[in-house]
Design a protein that fits this description.
The protein has helices at 2-15, 35-49, 56-65, 72-78, 87-111, 117-133, 142-158, 171-177, 196-206, 220-232, 236-241, 250-260, 275-289, 310-328, 358-364; strands spanning 185-190, 211-215, 265-269, 293-297, 332-337, 367-372, 386-394, 400-407, 412-414. The model has no long low-confidence stretch (mean pLDDT 84). The chain is elongated. The chain has 2 domains: 2-133, DNAb Helicase, Chain A (Orthogonal Bundle), CATH 1.10.860; 166-414, 3-Layer(aba) Sandwich (Rossmann fold), CATH 3.40.50. The chain has 15 helices and 9 strands. By secondary structure, the protein is an alpha/beta fold.
Length: 419
């Protein structure tokens, strides 16, 4: 079946070489099972690219000059096979057959594994995801790109002022970033006690889509309690101590539980998970639950065995988080630790270069946000009850900063005047 289909593709190209442009996004030479078919396909591509006429005679001559004289006779046989009218169907069959062979090869490699089963599974899932995405188009004309950009603008226009991405729950931040966007890696950095985990949970609470949370920092019961607090408005300390007022607090808590129990969110609660685990769990959630946003707490707590130095391992984690965002086509928001050097400065606001092991983070992240609350350093600060989110990097638009309200009792971030 595959041999005859490959012959049909090549025959159609010999009779109508211009048809190559219609299947370039479907197949490549490596997808042909036979080496001689790959050679002929590449030869036709070279001739078309250089503007040469392609037929059984010129193709045979070209193959001879390239050292493949034995194939010139075979091109005569191919010249009477296949129809250009059906070439896309032929090409799709060649692609499907190649994909099946790749899947079988992955299965065979798994069958031979003698060692860490979870690592083998992580590798297999990543390979299968890459196969799934080979169907994506990669080459475009500027005209194609402008058409896509125009259509995206029209879709945003149709939203009537609503943001095109997933809301962060803070209107000024959404106004600058347009929400979280598919395939983006967003890194949020801060010193300890600034509230970065609280900010991440605010993002989870605000999102109107299924969410996955990787928690390497706090156990799931604490995370759930904090989300209940910010949703209900009942102080987190009351929930922890059990000092809840039956008349004032319980109705709010009951209403909150009813709301939150319907939310589609999943938590992976493990101290220092490996980046392989994170990838596997995220892919599983994406497949089984359709998560549209992944939140990670935090980068430096995730383990990697690639590299001898700390910055190399952190770099691997960040690259794989970015790959995960692209593979799953979802935004990944990851927290990161900021070095203590900021505390030696007069102005202690952190910047992108202050991120611990920052080199790869700076390169891979699409957006980098830094969280700062002046009252952490100055208890009597005039800015008590407010926080700043500094936008240090934004591949899609402007940088700058936004101010928002901070309510310590419920660890809630909100718009100033509306929190």
């Amino acid at each position: 079946m595959s041999i005859a289909t490959e012959q049909s593709v090549l025959g159609a190209l010999i009779s109508s070489p211009e048809a190559l442009h219609g299947i370039e996004d479907l197949i490549t030479g490596e997808m042909f099972t036979r080496a001689d078919h790959r050679t002929i396909f590449y030869a036709i591509g070279d001739m078309v690219a250089s503007g040469r006429a392609v037929d059984v005679v010129t193709l045979g001559e070209y193959l001879e000059t390239e050292g493949h004289a034995r194939l010139s006779g075979y091109t005569l046989e191919l010249g009477v096979v296949g129809s250009a009218a059906n070439i896309k169907s032929y090409a799709q069959l060649v692609r499907d057959d190649w994909t099946l062979r790749q899947v079988q090869a992955v299965g065979q490699r798994i069958a031979k594994v003698d060692g860490d089963a979870s690592e083998a599974l992580d590798t297999a899932i990543a390979e299968l995801m890459r196969l799934q995405h080979t169907s994506q188009r990669h080459e475009y004309s500027l005209r194609d790109g402008m058409s896509m950009a125009y259509n995206a603008m029209k879709r945003a226009q149709e939203l009537g002022g609503r943001i095109p991405g997933i809301t962060a729950g803070l209107s000024k931040l959404d106004g600058i970033l347009g929400g979280w966007h598919d395939a983006d890696l967003i890194v949020v950095g801060a010193r300890p006690a600034m509230g970065k985990t609280a900010l991440l949970l605010n993002f989870a609470h605000a999102a109107n889509v299924p969410v996955g949370i990787i928690s390497a920092e706090q156990p799931v019961d604490q995370l759930a309690g904090r989300i209940m607090s910010l949703d209900s408005g009942v102080a987190a300390t009351k929930l922890r101590s059990g000092d809840v007022d039956g008349e004032a607090d319980m109705p709010r808590l009951s209403a909150s539980v009813k709301r939150l129990i319907e939310r589609k969110a999943w938590v992976y609660d493990r101290s220092a998970p490996s980046i392989g685990e994170v990838s596997r769990i995220a892919r599983k959630w994406h497949h089984q639950h359709g998560i549209k946003l992944l939140l990670v707490d935090y980068i430096q707590r995730i383990e990697s065995d690639r590299g001898d130095k700390r910055f190399e391992r952190v770099g691997d984690v960040v690259r794989q988080l970015k790959n995960l965002a692209r593979d799953l086509q979802i935004p990944v928001v990851a927290l990161a630790q900021v070095g203590r050097q900021v505390e030696q400065r007069v102005d202690k606001r952190p910047h992108m270069g202050d991120l611990s092991d920052s080199s790869e983070i700076e390169k891979e992240a699409d957006q980098i946000l830094m969280l700062y609350r002046d009252e952490v350093y100055e208890p009597e600060s005039k800015d008590r009850g407010t926080a700043e989110i500094l936008i240090e990097k934004n591949r899609h638009g402007p940088t700058g900063f936004v101010r928002c309200a901070w309510i310590p009792e419920t660890m809630k971030f909100g718009d100033l005047g509306h929190a």
